[in-house]
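Render this sequence as a predicted structure.
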Amino acid sequence: MSTSDKAQTGKSTDVDTVETQEWLDSLEAVLDREGPERAHFLLEQLTDLARRSGSNIPYSPHTAYVNTIPPGLEPRHPGNIAMEERIRSYIRWNAMAMVVKANKHNPEDGGDLGGHIASFASLATMFGCGQNHFWHAESENHGGDLVYFQGHSSPGVYGRAYIEGRLSEDQLDNFRQEVGGRGLPSYPHPKLMPEFWQFPTVSMGLGPLMAIYQARFLKYLHARGIADTSNRKVWVFCGDGEMDEPESLGAISLAAREKLDNLIFVINCNLQRLDGPVRGNGKIIQELEGEFRGSGWNVIKLIWGGYWDPLLARDKDGILRKVMQETVDGEYQACKANDGAYVREHFFGKDPRLLEMVSRMSDEEIWRLNRGGHDPYKVYAAFDAAQNTVGQPTVILAKTIKGYGLGSVAQGQNPAHQQKKLDINSLRDFRNRFNIPVTDEQLEDLPYYKPAEDSPEMKYLREHREKLGGYYPRRRPQADEKLKVPALDVFKAVLEPTSEGREISTTQAFVRFLNQLLRDKQLGERVVPILADESRTFGMEGLFRQIGIYAPEGQKYTPVDKNQVMYYKESANGQLLQEGINEAGAFASWIAAATSYSTNNRIMIPFFIYYSMFGFQRVGDLAWAAGDMQSRGFLLGGTAGRTTLNGEGLQHEDGHSHILSSTIPNCVSYDPTFAHEVAVIMQHGLKRMVEDQENVYYYITLMNENYAQPGLKEGDAEGIIKGMYKLQSTTGGKQHVQLMGSGTILREVIKAQELLKQDWDISSDVWSVTSFTELRREGLDVDRHNLLNPDGKPQVPYITQQLSATDGPIVASTDYMKLFADQVRDFMPKGRTYRVLGTDGFGRSDFRYKLREHFEVDRHFVVLAALKALADDRTIDKSKVSEAIQKYGIDINKANPHHA
């Protein structure tokens, strides 16, 4: 056998071709008579026997570089291919025209707006197939499929919506011009188009992650009997370059483990990312096949279009398959960036037998050899197989061309992603390529095209969408159901003072509140507790037995702690979602529940409690996506503050999560100190999100530090919600100061009040500030109103109103960076000194009192700050400040904690 023959057959030489053929004939007979499942079983048995006999037969997750579904097994396409191609061409034109128009502005008009044409150009056939045959909108007969559109493909979705009459020409003309309220956002944004887009899929990587947990949440709702989701699918379109994002592949094992056969990934393998090839020296489809197949997914490779079928059928010796396998993506990219002659020379020219195979084909015919993602027959076959897969999630690896149809300026070119302008010749070529009824005279104006209402195309389009429940995408902005929130006094156990000698933490207060809510007849079943493997840390292990941990297959083992009251109990209809050490996954689960009012017409109430040190710094991009999706639910940052998690240290102590949460406009943030504050805030949050269906979500920090709870006093609830209230006062001092605090450091402020009176005869008011963030937001609203209404009576911010009726300088101390309390400085009463203490710097591991001393936020520093403020106001002698430094043993030479 020649060297070339050996190479064709693989790594080893076939020493007995007759025996090989007998085995192959046997396998073919089994496939023909008993089907692929029986054949798979027999192959598994043979492999197992060989391994047990000592032969090393490694498993390969890779298959040949050809389509998974052979031509003979493709179902008949049910549509009118010519009609669908015409509609698809019109949408391509509208998408292109929209982006090019948006970038015709002169630099003096504000410069380029950007936009992307190439991604949709590669996806158009697949989007069209989904729209015509697969994607159900929510209707009486169907809960609706959920589609995560590839973010950069939005122009194509808009182009179709224009033809459907859902978007106006004016809106298309204002693509990426959103400030006036008429424009269309660059990417899918539910916040900006609340009745259109369901999911934000940019930043890249978040779509795949969120979609997996969305599919799991549909199963969860069904298992718990809250909604019938058995016929719904979650479709996820993402790019091959996007799969480099860690989030894209981070949860694929969960999808296989929980058998999410309602989940379909479609990875648009156009082989290019922003700067160049995704894998120039490799094969991204093969790589992704290994990742997904190895994780337990059903993998459908959609590589070659139908024009390749005759060539593959003639490839009896496997020469074509071999060259297909050995050609790297950088070469494939070059093939579609050039022409048929180039393909003949550089692809088929790799073997003289291949050149002979295509010798009777013209260069034009070679150029017509299409990729699978652009073949409507192949796409339909892949979608149909994916939709009917049982017991596994499915990924379709669809090979396409970046910038398909955009000619030499973009098709298959490295800069295709950034391409947003086309010259007149390129426009003419595009028009001719897709037979768009636009004249040469009209080309410069780039008119959008919509067929006449009574045209066959419009009738076809509407008929197919009516069968699928209506136009898509479509978002439900409110749930139909009306739920009533329990009154505040229902949570009496959390509102009352603790008995003498008894102490609890605000974390325990939250758990008590949650337990009471779980007992509510209407809302109890809608509660979704979510944990990232910290149940025992937060005292929530009692929920294991009470409501069970969701596990689709139930509990197949006897837990080691079964003899304990709070044993680990998994259940097929469990209520608690235990996500393991996985904050991103838990947050994605929370988003699925927090948007259930929209995606499922079922209001759910998710509570995700986690270490605040793993808070917004770890899941910040998802937190912004949650805001965009109009999420409603509670995020609880446990053991919060820089000095509260006393045993962890450097990176693990949170002094900044409230700074980060404050940047998200619809995230309502609180840092309560006492149990009654937690109860008031959460009950009010429930009313806003559940009863009033307001599009906000809550971030509340909690502490594991135990102390006595004073209970709710009459009249304080309003201030708790607004952000501050007067907790207690001392009187009769020579001077008076205002002391503000939040979270665990408020207790240091209370101790400082005692020291000021006892050691310095200075009286004070202590203010519990539950939210510096909400105080600032209200102050900014008032400031803006006054700016825009100069002739009206000026409004006064709430914080200014409260402090204006008091005397003396103001000191604030928190367990967060100084910036946290400093954000309300502009709203201090005029002429009043305001000093802020905070925990800037890296964390440390030590006892809490030592940490508070280190960060200079403890009672002694509060006293010192108050004395310094009085001295600056010249109401006491500055020697009192030096005297306090000596009295409390404050080391003036120690390093600034910010630099320590």
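Summary. Residues 19 and 545 are 60 Å apart (CA to CA). The longest helix spans residues 81-102.
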